[in-house]
């Protein structure tokens, strides 16, 4: 399976790598060591010493270098060996692959292609993570399933009715949903509105709808290579939520007497059949109240853990019958459009590589 290399992938939460820290992670089948030097600068290198292939992630950060734990070779942030303790001469070939890495909005992003081709302006806008109008919390799930399963799952929310009935799902999601799919050059959007419907359990806990009906929204955007942003929420019916679209493209739930949620899904392939599933949940009802943030996060985490188990069961069955056919129905449109966009980008990249070769 090929991966899209010309794209930014979430490598980890910035807070998880302090000065002097080392993080080993496989991304797109490539072992990478991430480290932060003593001045706080980030670097990403192939996790393999060029001498005897010992993992650099088992070494130590020395000033602005990472030192191999086997024979003490030291590498700078570009991957060049700058010190060999046993000799003064350093061969020109003493280097390992380096990766472009950017820290932005409390996330670490790695570019899997040639660092010279990296364009930081294409990093997804996750500025809400720095916006005081949102209270948020994030984590990561190590999923034993391919990343395409997660994209399909998120872009088709009809499963919420059945998988997440105790938290964020109810029958309004399939019985009353007004759905629109929008295909762009580099992204896919799915807009779902449930007008004059019952609030699901999680929303009823987070906002007082006084037992009344709500207008509920789920506005999804898939961006290459594998980022999905979901703006969701509900407001009391009669507040014209659909006409009150805020700057980020979704209603301001709190100002309409309800709740607005933003959910980030940063889906980083580890191998063909495993995924680093980073996600974060934000709420605008009481952004300064950690208890509200923790409650909303906990409810969504319950739902996401159900998905986590679901992906792994899908992978087991797929491994057992890799050529078994799958059918698709109308609700799959968002996921199908997203994977088609991704597959076309991978195919174009592969054709470009073959042309160069």
What tags apply to this protein structure?
357 residues; Naphthalene 1,2-dioxygenase Alpha Subunit, Chain A, domain 1; alpha+beta; 6 helices; 33% strand; 6-stranded antiparallel sheet; 17 strands; Rieske Iron-sulfur Protein; globular; 7-stranded antiparallel sheet
Distance, first to last CA = 19 Å
Mean pLDDT, nearest integer? Answer: 90
Q: In the CATH scheme, what's the topology name of the largest domain?
A: Naphthalene 1,2-dioxygenase Alpha Subunit, Chain A, domain 1
Judging from the principal axes of the Cα atoms, what is the shape? globular
Counted beta strands? 17
State Rg: 22 Å
CATH top level class name of the largest domain: Alpha Beta
Describe this structure in words.
With about 350 residues, this protein is of the alpha+beta class. It has two domains: about 120 residues, Rieske [2Fe-2S] iron-sulphur domain (Rieske Iron-sulfur Protein, 3-layer Sandwich), CATH 2.102.10.10; about 210 residues, Naphthalene 1,2-dioxygenase Alpha Subunit, Chain A, domain 1 (Alpha-Beta Complex). Helix content is about 20%, strand content about 35%. It is built from six helices and 17 strands. It has a seven-stranded antiparallel sheet. A six-stranded antiparallel sheet has the order 1-10-9-4-3-2, with no helix packed on it. A four-stranded antiparallel sheet has the order 5-6-7-8, with no helix packed on it. A hairpin with a 3-residue loop joins strand 12 and strand 13. Helix 1 packs antiparallel against helix 6. The chain is globular. The chain starts with 7 loop residues before the first strand and ends with a helix.
């Amino acid at each position: 399976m090929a991966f899209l290399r010309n794209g930014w992938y979430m490598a980890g939460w910035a807070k998880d790598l302090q000065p002097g820290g080392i993080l080993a992670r496989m991304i797109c089948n490539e072992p990478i060591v991430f480290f932060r030097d003593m001045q706080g600068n980030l670097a990403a290198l192939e996790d393999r010493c060029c001498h005897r292939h010992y993992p650099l992630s088992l070494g130590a950060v020395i000033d602005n270098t990472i030192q191999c734990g086997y024979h003490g070779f030291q590498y700078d942030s570009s991957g060049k060996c700058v010190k060999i303790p046993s000799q003064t001469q350093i061969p020109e070939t003493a280097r390992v692959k380096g990766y472009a890495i950017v820290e932005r909005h409390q996330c670490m992003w790695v570019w899997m292609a040639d660092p010279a081709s990296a364009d930081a302006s294409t990093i997804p806008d996750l500025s809400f993570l720095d916006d005081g109008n949102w209270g948020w919390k994030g984590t990561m799930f190590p999923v034993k399933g391919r990343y395409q399963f997660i994209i399909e799952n998120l872009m088709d929310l009809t499963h919420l009715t059945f998988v997440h009935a105790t938290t964020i799902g109810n029958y309004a999601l399939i019985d009353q949903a007004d759905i629109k799919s929008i295909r762009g050059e580099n992204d896919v959007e799915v807009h779902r509105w449930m007008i004059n419907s019952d609030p699901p359990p999680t929303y009823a806990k987070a906002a007082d709808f006084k037992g009344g009906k709500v207008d509920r929204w789920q506005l999804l955007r898939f961006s290459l290579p594998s980022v999905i942003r979901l703006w969701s929420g509900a407001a009391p019916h009669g507040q014209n939520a659909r006409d009150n679209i805020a700057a980020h493209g979704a209603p301001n739930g709190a100002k309409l007497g309800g709740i607005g949620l933003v959910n980030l899904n940063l889906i980083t392939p580890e191998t063909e059949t495993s995924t680093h599933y980073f996600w974060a949940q934000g709420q605008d009802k009481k952004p300064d109240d950690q208890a509200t943030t923790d409650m909303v996060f906990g409810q969504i985490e319950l739902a996401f853990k159900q998905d986590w188990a679901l992906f792994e069961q899908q992978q087991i069955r797929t491994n057992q019958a890799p050529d078994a056919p799958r059918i698709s129905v109308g609700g799959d449109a968002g996921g199908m459009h997203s994977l088609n966009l991704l597959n076309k980008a991978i195919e174009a990249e592969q054709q470009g590589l073959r042309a160069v070769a």
